[in-house]
Amino acid sequence: ILAGGAFMVFRLKQKINNILFGLFISFLFFGAVYLFSLSNLRISTVDNRFQIGKLAIRAVVANPILGYGVDNIEGVLNKFITPDNLGSAGLIVDRSHFLFLDIWLWSGIFGVISFAGWIMYSIWSNINNKKKINLMAAVVIFLVFTAFNPSSITTWVLFYFVMAMLDNNNYAEE
User: Rounded CA gap, 131 and 126, in Å?
Assistant: First the structure.
């Protein structure tokens, strides 16, 4: 009984220490956020994403058919900075934070239609295959993720790997 009581006290003390440590970390995090909000510095805010989106749309309108080539967005968007969006000046922007807008900037209307058609065909042709439902869910999750975040080489590799498995007729056939 004495050992059991000591064990219970030790566990209670450990839980209290964990709670206090969590409160301390939370205090540090929210304190840093508050101090950062007092400064005039801005890293990547929603305002910047909207500004980047507006610049990307202007760039698409300027060259909608052919686009500007893969990974040329940084140089392109700097050409469209005007006095009303000078808050975007100095930002290094290599993605528009929206996948289909990026692809349109890279490869024009033909590229974005081809990419969207490939995804729709891959999902539509496997819609009744219950064994590939996880792959289709992964594609949808990728599309949702890249609708709000820039894509990187790691997400592209995973995306093409999942699309290859989805398009492979020998994988998970019913």
Answer: 9
Task: Decide: 48 and 88 in contact? Cβ < 8 Å.
Answer: yes
Do the Cβ atoms of 63 and 20 come closer than 8 Å?
A: no
Concatenated DSSP letters of the chain: -HHHHHHHHHHHHHHHHHHHHHHHHHHHHHHHHHHHHHSS--SS-HHHHHHHHHHHHHHHHHSTTT---TT-HHHHHHTT--GGGGGGTT------S-HHHHHHHHHHHHHHHHHHHHHHHHHHHTTT-GGGHHHHHHHHHHHHHTTTS---HHHHHHHHHHHHHHH-TTSS--
- The predicted model gives 10-39 an average pLDDT of 60
| Average confidence (pLDDT) over 46-68 | 80
Residue 114 has pLDDT above 90, yes or no: yes
Please report where in the chains the tokens 């909000």 appear, as a residue: 37
Distance CA 150, CA 161 (A): 19
User: Among 132, 125, 133, 155, which Cα is nearest to 142's?
Assistant: 155
Mean pLDDT throughout 138-162?
86
Q: Which residue has the tokens 């939370």?
A: 26
Q: What is the pLDDT of residue 126?
A: 86
Contact by Cβ (8 Å): 120, 89: no
